[in-house]
Automatic annotation (TrEMBL):
One BP annotation, GO: transmembrane transport
Gene3D superfamilies per record: MetI-like
Classification lineage: Bacteria, Pseudomonadati, Pseudomonadota, Alphaproteobacteria, Rhodobacterales
Keyword Nucleus: no
Family: Belongs to the binding-protein-dependent transport system permease family. CysTW subfamily.
InterPro entries assigned: MetI-like (IPR000515), MetI-like_sf (IPR035906)
Species assigned in the record: Paenirhodobacter enshiensis
Protein name (record): Acriflavin resistance protein
Transmembrane stretches, start-end: 20-40, 80-104, 124-145, 157-186, 206-228, 235-255, 267-289
Length: 298
């Protein structure tokens, strides 16, 4: 008997190489931008906050945050952020509700949202100049009220270079940001909820108090946290408007790191680290509350 030859076994296939889809290449510029202008500066701030001028490790810079002047600057910044966020939420919510649920013409919505998208990013020197030219000591509105109506804003204690002056200036971008964020939440209110409330005998006020506002409350509170972080981290507008007349955190931080003889860059890093912690907590609260509100609005 002759042995029949067994068929030759097929050659082993080379392992397939996993290739990254080309669609991911579009994220590379964004990832590079985040790494260079967000992650790297943040790490430099965190490391620098725990260093001396010679590079040795220390807690002195963080301990310096608890001095009276720096704590006072944090307190002023927090007050301005809370005031501008609360007023921005209230006014922005009323405007968005009037457009979405009120009786305003439908054509008003598109221009309002377009303007809000532009105004929410309008800040810095142009915004400061606009308010100085309008409500400053020789501003258009200030001079008009004093000349034609006999109303002297300075006599009533108003000063654009003060707490309320900076708060009103921040409202220019706080209100539009609130409108942009809360409008989709108002769109998510279902008509069936109002009809069900009305069929059970609820009035309009009861519907808002017992149904609509409890559903919108996480979104409103989350937006308040976002507006707080937005105002607390605003730097260019405050410096251009008030200079050194109002000692808020961004202005004191700038004084520490600009290279003057009396400046301490590492103390400035510690102040920036404190701002990162506060704004980071506010953004975490915003994301968490927004996730809760989206459960109802889907």
């Amino acid at each position: 008997m002759t042995d029949t030859p067994s068929p030759a076994s097929p050659p082993l296939a080379a392992p397939a190489r996993r290739r990254l889809p080309l669609t991911w290449l579009g994220l590379l510029p964004f990832a590079l931008f985040i790494a260079l202008f967000l992650i790297a500066p943040t790490m430099k701030i965190v490391i620098g906050a725990f260093q001396r001028a010679d590079g040795s490790f220390t807690f002195e810079n963080v301990a310096g945050l608890f001095t009276k002047s720096i704590l006072g600057s944090y307190w002023i910044s927090i007050r301005i952020s809370v005031a501008s966020s609360a007023l921005g939420c209230l006014i922005g919510f009323l405007m968005a509700a009037a457009v979405v649920l009120g009786g305003l013409p439908k054509w008003v919505r598109s221009p309002l949202l377009t303007f809000s998208g532009v105004a929410s990013n309008f800040a810095g020197v142009p915004l400061a100049f606009a308010f100085l030219a309008t409500l400053g000591p020789l501003g258009l509105v200030t001079v008009f009220l004093k000349t034609h109506l006999g109303i002297n804003l300075r006599a009533y204690g108003f000063n654009i270079l003060s707490f309320w002056g900076l708060t009103i200036t921040y409202l220019f971008f706080q209100i539009p940001l609130m409108i942009l964020i809360v409008t989709p939440a108002l769109d998510g209110l279902k008509r069936e909820w109002r009809e069900a409330a009305q069929s059970l005998g609820a009035s309009g006020a009861q519907y808002w108090r017992m149904v609509a506002l409890p559903i919108l409350f996480p979104a409103i509170l989350g937006t308040f946290a976002l507006l707080f972080a937005n105002a607390f981290g605003a730097v260019a507008t405050a410096i251009a408007l008030t200079g050194s007349s109002l000692n808020i955190v961004p202005i004191m931080l700038f004084a520490q790191i600009r290279g003057d003889v009396l400046g301490n860059p590492h103390l400035g890093y510690a102040m920036a680290l404190g701002m990162i912690v506060i704004t980071g907590l506010a953004n975490v609260i915003y994301i968490w509350l927004r996730m809760r509100s989206e459960r109802w609005l889907k």
